[in-house]
Amino acid sequence: MKTIFKSFLAFAILIFSLATANVNAQTNPKIKNVVLVHGAFADGSGWQGLYKVLTKKGYNVTIVQNPLSSLEDDVKATNLALDKQDGPTILVGHSWGGTVITEAGNHPKVAALVYVAALQPDNGENSVQWLQTAPPAPENGVLPPDEKGIAYYDKAKFHAGFAGDLSKEQADFMYASQGAFHAQGFLTPITKAAWRTKPSYGIVATEDKSIVPSIQYAMYKRSNTKITEIKGSHVVFISQPEKVANVIIEASK
After folding, report:
1. Are 101 and 92 in contact (CB under 8 A)?
2. What residues in the chain have per-residue pLDDT under 70?
3. How far is CA 167 from CA 16, 27, 38, 98, 248, in A?
4. DSSP assignment letter at 188
5. Phi and psi dihedrals of 225, rounded to 5?
6. Parallel, antiparallel, or unpaired for β 60-64 and 33-37?
7. Predicted pLDDT of residue 209
8. Residues with Cβ < 8 Å from 62, sequence gap 6 or more?
9. 3-state secondary structure 155-182
């Protein structure tokens, strides 16, 4: 009788261990590292809300500060951040940052890509090509390059065109902290699109006035990127950080 009981107990422990391992596999992401890449008319401070959400859930988050001087320089800055990661990493890009991660995503530590209202060119394509595939929204305020070749966002249109679902105070801060984006970057073609070989997730910001949603859909569908719609402005990662975090978490599992 004791032998039967011991055998039953051992079997029960085995079943419990397997069940626990299965639950842990479903709840604990395999990938804990996340690298965030900002866009052209912003800086890394915009990721603060998303950073807080992800770090509270146990993720190791690194924020790239793009120099915005060229595609090559932004890719280099992103690769430096990826070099420091201790294992597989989810690489996230917003807006122009999508073009950056399309090239930088070839880094061996990148396990998946997440595009947040982002550009997603293919080999030989540049960002401008896609921006010209649909008429800009009336609220769009991207100005022509100045005499130094730097493009800024029009202050009068920044709130409505870039950050319509944020407070005016938040939008004013973002305008004041935007980087000096060298417009030549928009004309630089991709040499090797990482989304061709790595899993990709794309967030369509349905109220976007800077990259209209139809452009986002067209890029993501062309690449078989898994699409998630979130109602929000171009800076949906600020206005809806929990929902954007959910997509990153999905990619990490």
Report:
1. yes
2. 1-29
3. 50, 35, 20, 25, 25
4. P
5. -75, 140
6. parallel
7. 98
8. 33, 34, 35, 36, 81, 84, 85
9. HHHHHHHHCCCCCHHHHHHHHHCCCCEE
